[in-house]
UniProtKB/TrEMBL annotation:
It comes from Ailuropoda melanoleuca (Giant panda). Residues 1-18 form the signal peptide. This is alanine transaminase. Keywords: Aminotransferase, Pyridoxal phosphate, Signal, Transferase. Catalyzes the reversible transamination between alanine and 2-oxoglutarate to form pyruvate and glutamate. Its cofactor is pyridoxal 5'-phosphate. SUPFAM superfamilies: PLP-dependent transferases. GO terms for cellular component: cytoplasm.
């Protein structure tokens, strides 16, 4: 076939253009420029038959179809398609091959579709075939309400009118996203570690340079961009151990028991992975507080473990009652093997700080029931009540004597994300695991090795948290001033939040002793519940409807649930984060919505804005 592929392709395009009048195609696109046929005269002569004239007639007369070219054509297929174009698309061409446009077009189109598009086969991964444990995972901190909040924010940006002008994101403790300024010393050291050329700059204090050099010298190639050991950078683990010893008044900490993690969440899920085993009634049961931080229920679902709920005492400022622990274990033994007891202190979302006596009782209970203790202590710097003090489980355990300190297995966790630092994005954290069997320690390191290492930048941030400036160093005064300012502001907001909630009819809030959240009791009349059910929300999801009404984004009742038997029109749907912009106090964006007995929603007396 003497016609070039380019010329033939152009012919097909021209045939499908359906030229209708001067300068336009039938589909609205520009028609070929005048004289286009001259460029094809030579190549088209090789098509035979009517040659160029037939082709030109074809291109000008076809107006009822377009060619669907799915694949490259060659050889006999191209020849046959060309013949069909010559004889079928040009009814004025004399000869025995004249026919209607429609039949010739159909045949030509069928030939050009040499390889018809394959029908899509059944997907390998579907909701029915996927891992059922993953499907069972729920994490309300980033769940449907947060997605809805994002949609509403986009609507506000497009100018859609709402009863509010902004969405207040009170669902997660992301300090710097809410306006908290980073600690200068921490960012200085991180800048030096990230760009070591700054070590020669006079703009940085010497104590920051000293820490940066120490961290970099412990990294491969003197760079944060290198992998570390799976357990973490050695010198940072040493600094963590030294910090724990100082914090606990001299109780020793071994760097070999320190594991640097991708935030505290990574450490919690890793420990639970090696603890969960068995099947049926021997499946591992994990005891968690209710209300709880939904990480725990999510990981338990993912691992197909058994969630064992124990309920905090709201009437006693969310205290942990050992009798409630005994009830939970006794009932759980009918269907699982309770092996793990999780404690969050200070509490998330309840804001309580457990007393030393309570911690001693919990440790004795764990020793008695042979339970592995998990102590989530990421809010250890966030204690606001003058009557409360943070006691680490590690310290109390050792001070209870060798019968406990040598036998109770304990993993405790800390993070860069909370406290006064608020460095959530660095994903820095550590866990200290004590009394672990040597063979299990090897298995833990193996499991950590699968993901190579936690982010080295996060490890460096954790080092600055546990090794801050000390009196006499150049940066100490500024560091201490910034730290106390952050913690002081949080303490003021905790008190203000508590007072404002308790002034609103239908809301009751316990004293906020620590952490970063308020967890009020909201009394909801029956008509409001009925209205929510009409919307598809209903009991347990009423907070979703309230979010849309008042412009606040907070967690649903299911995430921080407290069961009191019957529904009783009490919803614990709102976990309010204290880390908000100071200047937003008094903003109308989040006026307290008080649901009246008539089932109506009206503004409350108190503005609950970004201070919450």
């Amino acid at each position: 076939m003497r016609a070039s592929g380019a010329a033939f392709a152009k012919l097909l395009w021209l045939c499908s253009s359906a030229v209708e009048g001067p300068g336009r195609r039938g589909d609205g696109h520009p028609a070929p420029e005048p004289g286009w046929h001259r460029s094809l005269k030579g190549p088209l002569a090789g098509l035979g038959g009517g040659g160029t004239g037939a082709a030109l007639g074809c291109a000008r007369r076809v107006c009822s179809f377009s060619f669907s070219v799915k694949v490259s054509l060659g050889g006999r297929a191209m020849q046959r398609a060309a013949a069909l174009v010559r004889r079928g698309c040009c009814p004025r061409t004399p000869g025995p091959w004249g026919r209607s446009q429609s039949s010739a077009a159909a045949e030509a189109s069928a030939v050009l579709k040499v390889r018809p598009e394959r029908s899509r086969r059944e997907r390998i991964l579907t909701l029915e075939s996927m891992n059922p444990q993953v499907k069972a995972v729920e994490y309300a901190v980033r769940g449907p309400i947060v997605l809805k909040a994002g949609e509403i924010e986009l609507e506000l940006q497009r100018g859609i009118k709402k009863p509010f002008t902004e969405v207040i994101r009170a669902n997660i403790g992301d300090a710097q996203a809410m306006g908290q300024q980073p600690i200068t010393f921490l960012r200085q050291v991180m800048a030096l570690c990230t760009y070591p050329n700054l070590l020669d700059s006079p703009s940085f204090p010497e104590d920051a340079k000293k820490r940066a050099r120490r961290i970099l010298q412990a990294c491969g190639g003197n760079s944060l961009g290198s992998y570390s050991a799976s357990q973490g950078v050695n010198c940072i683990r040493e600094d963590v151990a030294a910090y724990i010893t100082r914090r606990d008044g001299g109780v020793p900490a071994d760097p070999d028991n320190i594991y640097l993690t991708t935030g505290a969440s990574d450490g919690i899920s890793t420990i639970l992975k090696i603890l969960v085993s068995g099947g049926g009634k021997s499946r591992t049961g994990v005891m968690i507080p209710i209300p709880q931080y939904p990480l725990y229920s999510a990981v338990i679902s993912e691992l197909d473990a058994i969630q064992v709920n124990y309920y905090l005492d709201e009437d006693n400022c969310w205290a942990l009652n050992v009798n409630e622990l005994r009830r939970a274990v006794r009932e759980a033994k009918d269907h699982c093997d309770p092996k793990v007891l999780c404690i969050i202190n200070p509490g998330n979302p309840t804001g309580q700080v457990q007393s030393r006596k309570c911690i001693e009782d919990v440790i004795h209970f764990a020793w008695e029931e042979k339970l592995f203790l998990l102590a989530d202590e990421v809010y250890q710097d966030n204690v606001y009540s003058p009557d409360c003090r943070f006691h680490s489980f590690k310290k109390v355990l050792y001070e209870m004597g060798p019968e406990y300190s040598s036998n109770v297995e304990l993993a405790s966790f800390h993070s860069t994300s909370k406290g006064y630092m608020g460095e959530c994005g660095y994903r820095g954290g550590y866990m200290e695991v004590i009394n672990l069997h040597p063979e299990i320690k090897g298995q833990l390191v193996k499991l950590l090795s699968v993901r190579l290492c936690p982010p080295v930048s996060g490890q460096a941030a954790m080092d600055i948290v546990v090794n801050p400036p000390v009196p006499g160093e150049e940066s100490f005064e500024q560091f201490h001033r910034e730290k106390e300012s952050v913690l002081g502001n949080l303490a003021k907001k905790a008190k203000l939040t508590e007072d404002l909630f308790n002034q609103v009819p239908g809301i009751h809030c316990n004293p906020l002793q620590g952490a970063m959240y308020a967890f009020p009791r909201i009394f909801i009349p029956s008509k409001a519940v009925e209205a929510a059910q009409v919307w598809g929300a209903g009991p347990g999801r009423t907070g979703f409807t309230w979010n849309c009404w008042v412009g606040g984004c907070f967690l649903p009742r299911g995430a921080k649930v407290l069961a009191l038997g019957a529904w009783n029109f009490v919803d614990r749907s709102a976990r309010w984060c204290l880390q908000q912009k100071d200047g937003a106090l008094g903003s109308p964006a989040l006026q307290s919505a008080v649901v009246r007995g008539r089932g109506e929603v009206s503004p409350g007396r108190v503005v609950l804005s970004r201070a919450l």
